[in-house]
Specification:
The complex is a heterodimer. Chain A has helices at residues 44-50, 54-62, 92-104, 112-117, 129-136, 169-181, 192-199, 204-208, 224-227, 244-255, 259-266, 276-282, 287-291, 313-316, and strands spanning 33-38, 64-67, 80-86, 105-111, 160-162. Chain A is α/β, with parallel strands linked by helices. Chain B is an alpha+beta fold. Chain B is 25% helix and 26% strand. In chain B, helix 9 (267-274) packs across helix 11. The longest helix of chain B has 20 residues, at 330-349. Chain B is globular, with a radius of gyration of 30 Å. The N and C termini of chain B lie far apart (83 Å). Classes of the chains: A alpha/beta, B alpha+beta. The interface between A and B is large, with 50 and 52 residues.
């Protein structure tokens, strides 16, 4: 419980929350309050939490789950010890809520491609938002949405990210275990290729000429797509220092693929994460944007959107890469 | 009574050497399994020959071959029934002697007490079937790293000790193979229990250890008969052919020092633009041994396990400490890998870290070839191509041998190809790019490039430009002429192995390059992309037109044509030859170029090639000069320090330096 034991050091409201709603488990130690909130998302990551099944029981011995829309209609207000955020910031309401939720959360964990990267809905960031909205909805004037869907970290500091579409249950358990025991979560920062090689999966790119994003994509999925004989489509998002431009150049040169086709490979669930984002832009934008006459590129100057807190990770975790977490004191 | 001593013929060539029918392979697998061993061998899965547990020889590949190149692996169907008709695949035996994930120990923390307990290793008895020479060498390297002290990996040692090794001699090779350069193959020489060399219907079997002998004398005895001298000879010849086929793709003399002197080479940054730092090369490598240990705990934080997993110096976190990473840039990590593998490994372990298996080349998803990088970063000290000289006939100034025209072909209005036979056999053994001094009495002898080597002669393609060449193009079938040669050096085609080749030619300049194209087409798989750019004055002046269509359709050669001027019937390009590729998308970093044409055209070509990343060390031209002797005695063909006839006619741009293209040299 080391990491959970000193809520006041983060300076938001003392210990009033520590046991108000919970009850003492295991010798009277208060359980950390855990909540899940969602923005623009499909709820698939929440379902991954539910799919833990037996482990959920063990988790509930260590955590008090106070808010979990996919599991229960009960709602609770903060503050929270651990707040899982699913989904991207996609509406004016999301923009208003995320800042408040950050204040209520000691540890904020974004879960899934939408929250960490913007999600599939961020493909509209390359397109004309109004044209999209008019094409999809019969009465678009009732739809309140922002021109761009953005990851949570563009608006507030994020302590941990769980990547994937959906997230990996193993990584979720590992993160919770690390939080409860006060150690650094062992979330590998490496290419999917490493997982393929350890498992003895034959490289689909070398052996079959299939375009695969595994080289530039964060591991965690267990290389599920290459194991099934198809290329990785990057749902865990770019890994640290991902050489997406180098891969894009090779895919064009080696496989008679057009720039558009290669750009499309990157334009998936994590398209809006750098360096996938600029790679797509360099290759001419997304297919949908071209069809609807969108700008075809993302104007860097448009961010942060008006009203966004947009602290950026850098000020909160100076010089530290993602997944390193908040335990900067070396724990 | 007189005794006569009879010298008995040596029997050592076949003694102790056995023949195993192909069907007998199953007896070998069965015998190893009966011995309580888990048998690991090749099998086909997911489009590759992988290594996995096998239960009978039926699970092994049959009639399967492979084609490998940078970033590329494909299975092929063989015409024969061979079980080992391919080279190394994606898996290495490292997986079984140094597994990718192992639990090392467990720990507990109860109150103030901590406990640690090593996790016991109980490796099963192993047998490896199909270990190649490079892989035996990899065991040797791993033994030095993990089992030579002062500290040892006991789990590795136990697994190695338990393994019965059935080695296989390579009778095939791929573009990615370079065991010959690393001194690790293809010959299997030691470190095995049994070695097999696959023949048409079975295997030559050699015994390499007491355990192997025991198997041969026991369970395998009924499947064996003594090998015949023909079988022994054939096996040796097949392996020798493999060695010849691989050549020496990576000159390693002084490589350690060459490489470590290049820590600041700008090429590290260039390769890092292409390298994805995914780590595939290191995990595919049979000798890379880097690992990371991961701690896992239960939710109470009481019980912990330590698990060791293969890791890679390419991962950004591998050299990270609290303040950051010591090798933060991709270029740092590429340099770490290459300098360790080919350089500092020697200092640490007294051996190379690379065994030349080529896995890092084939399984690099973006096709980076370490040999290419090493040659660019730490090139061999002597860069000039080593000409392989054929002893010429009629080498003296005044001597000719006679050959007969057996066929003529009008190539264009003024150009004829003569097929000659009956000349000295030396001519048909000549090298690509050599020339002959050709004479008709009454006319001055002229240097003419050999445009084809046939079984019993050569072809000469001659443009009737002056009286002597007009007399030659007028020759009819049955006419004779005089020859001296073959003379001069040759195109360094061995340096093009494993690389892309760009051939640029203008007009009659295609003649000395035609044998190169024949050689490429005959052994096409050994080369990367081959592109021919050819320019002629008009469409009617295009040489070897029908043949060129075959090069494109069946030879796997991209042919691009242009003409200086053309009528409306010409639908192709019009313009100078460099325009054919100054907009092309290929990258020249891996390419070698052979260029022949008018000197100004060659100069323009060299400039365009340089702009695409083909360095002067990889651009070769053939020069035309006035020659009378062809052997460096008459003085006509001097160019700077060279006699073009004797030292050329093929030169690298590096050799020519600033004399190339300079007016008045």
């Amino acid at each position: 419980m080391a990491a959970m034991a000193h809520p006041t050091e983060h300076g938001h409201g003392g210990h009033a929350h520590s046991n108000e709603h919970g009850h003492a488990a295991r010798g009277g130690t208060p359980r950390p309050r855990v909540a899940v909130v969602k923005f623009a998302s499909c709820d698939g990551c929440q379902l991954t939490i539910l799919d833990l099944e037996d482990l959920l029981l063990e988790l509930s011995e260590h955590f008090e789950i106070v808010d979990f829309p996919e599991a229960s209609s009960a709602r609770s207000n903060g503050p929270y010890d651990v707040l899982f955020v699913e989904g991207s910031v996609s509406t004016p309401d999301h923009l208003r809520r995320i800042g408040e939720l950050r204040k209520q959360a000691r540890v904020l964990v974004t879960i899934g491609a939408c929250a960490t990267s913007g999600g599939i809905q961020a493909l509209r960031n390359w397109a004309d938002h109004d044209a999209y909205r008019a094409a999809v909805y019969p009465t678009p004037e009732f739809v309140e949405s922002l021109a761009r869907a953005t990851p949570i970290a563009e608006h507030v500091p994020v302590d941990f990210e769980l990547r994937g579409c959906p997230i990996s249950p193993d990584q979720l358990v590992e993160l919770l275990t690390a939080l409860v025991t006060g150690r650094r979560p062992q979330l590998r920062d490496e290419a999917v290729c490493m997982e393929c090689k350890r498992r003895g999966v034959v490289c689909v790119m070398s052996a079959q000429g299939i375009a695969c994003l595994g080289q530039v994509t964060q591991t965690g999925c267990g290389a599920i797509c290459p194991r099934m004989g198809r290329g990785c489509y990057g749902c865990f998002g770019p890994r640290e220092q991902a050489n997406a431009a180098g891969l894009a150049r090779y895919l064009q040169a080696s496989g008679e693929r057009s720039a558009e086709e290669v750009g499309q490979l990157f334009a998936g669930f994590t398209a809006y994460s750098e360096p996938f984002r600029s790679t797509i832009t360099d290759l001419g934008g997304t297919r949908g944007a071209r069809r609807t006459g969108g700008a075809g590129h993302v104007a860097g100057g448009a961010y942060p959107p008006p009203g966004g807190a947009a602290t950026g990770r850098a000020s909160y975790l100076p010089g530290r890469p993602r997944m390193e977490g908040i335990d900067d004191d070396g724990r | 009574m007189m005794t006569i001593e009879v010298t008995r013929p040596e029997r050592t060539t076949t003694a102790g050497r056995w023949y195993l029918e192909r069907a007998g392979l199953d007896a070998l697998v069965a015998a190893l399994r009966e011995d309580g061993r888990t048998v690991i061998g090749p099998t086909v899965a997911d489009g590759a020959v992988v290594l996995a547990e096998i239960h009978s020889s039926a699970e092994m590949p049959h009639a399967v071959g492979d084609v490998q190149g940078p970033g590329r692996y494909r299975l092929t169907k063989r015409d024969d029934a061979r079980v080992f008709g391919y080279v190394v695949g994606p898996t290495s035996w490292k997986r079984w002697v140094f597994p990718p994930d192992v639990e090392l120990s467990t720990g507990r923390r109860t109150g103030h007490r901590v406990e640690f307990a090593p996790t016991a290793s109980h490796p099963t008895k192993l047998a490896f079937v199909g270990v190649r020479a490079c892989e035996l060498a990899a065991f040797g390297v791993q033994d030095r790293v993990l089992d030579a002290g002062p500290f040892r990996d006991a789990d590795y040692a136990a697994r190695r000790e338990s393994a019965f090794v059935v080695a296989v001699q390579c009778t095939t090779a791929e573009l990615t193979c370079f065991c010959t350069s690393m001194g690790t193959g293809p010959e299997v020489e030691h470190g095995f229990d049994i070695a097999l060399t696959e023949l048409d219907e079975g295997f030559l079997l050699d015994v390499g250890s007491p355990a192997g002998q025991e198997l041969v004398d026991g369970k395998l005895a009924s499947a064996l008969r003594p090998a015949t001298p023909v079988e022994v000879y054939t096996a040796a010849a097949d392996v020798a052919a493999t060695r010849a086929r691989i050549g020496d793709p990576l000159p390693t003399a002084g490589l350690h020092d060459r490489l470590l002197a290049q820590l600041d080479n700008p090429r590290w940054a260039q390769v890092a633009e292409r390298c994805i730092t995914c780590g595939n090369c290191t995990l595919a490598c049979p000798t890379c041994f880097c690992t990371s240990v991961i701690q896992k705990t239960d939710m109470e934080g009481i019980a912990a396990t330590n698990e060791r997993a293969w890791d890679s110096c390419f991962s950004p976190g591998f050299a990270r400490v609290a303040g950051g990473s010591f090798r933060s840039r991709p270029r740092d990590r590429y340099r770490q890998w290459l300098t360790h593998k080919f350089g500092t490994w020697w200092d640490q372990f007294g051996t190379t870290g690379c065994v030349g298996c080529g896995r890092c080349i084939t399984w690099c998803p973006v096709g980076i070839d370490v040999r290419e990088e090493l040659m660019a970063i730490a090139p061999p000290v002597a860069l000039s191509p080593e000409p392989i000289r054929v002893e010429p006939v009629a080498a003296s100034f005044n001597d000719f041998v006679v050959a007969q025209v057996v066929a003529t072909r009008q190539e264009t209005a003024d150009t004829v190809t003569l097929t000659l036979a009956g000349a000295d056999p030396a001519f048909s053994k000549g090298n690509l790019g050599q020339f002959a001094m050709v004479a008709i009495p009454g006319f001055p002898p002229l240097p003419i490039s050999i445009s084809r080597f046939t079984v019993d002669g050569i072809e000469l393609t001659i443009r009737g430009a002056g009286p002597a060449t007009k007399a030659m193009t007028a020759l009819k079938v049955g006419d004779q002429l005089g020859l001296r040669g073959p003379l001069g050096n040759n195109w360094p085609i061995e340096r093009a192995v494993g690389r892309d080749l760009v051939i640029v030619s203008g007009g009659i300049g295609l003649a000395p390059l035609r044998p190169v194209i024949h050689a490429l087409a005959a052994d096409r798989r050994r080369f990367g992309d081959v592109r021919l750019y050819y320019g002629a004055r008009t469409p009617a002046d295009i040489l070897y037109r029908e043949e060129m269509e075959r090069w494109a359709s069946r030879g796997g050669i991209e042919v691009h044509l242009t003409v200086d001027r053309a009528g409306p019937e010409w639908e192709g390009r019009v313009g100078v030859v460099t325009q054919l590729f100054d907009q092309a998308t290929w990258e020249g970093a891996n390419a070698i170029a052979f260029v022949c044409g008018p000197e100004r055209m060659m100069q323009a070509t060299a400039n365009t090639l340089a702009g695409r990343g083909v360095t002067p060390t990889r651009i070769f031209v053939t020069l035309e000069r006035h020659m009378e002797c062809g052997i460096g005695l008459c003085g006509h063909c001097q160019m700077g320090k060279y006699f073009v006839c004797r030292d050329g006619p093929v030169f690298s741009l590096l050799q020519l330096g600033d004399t190339f293209g300079r007016e008045g040299i």
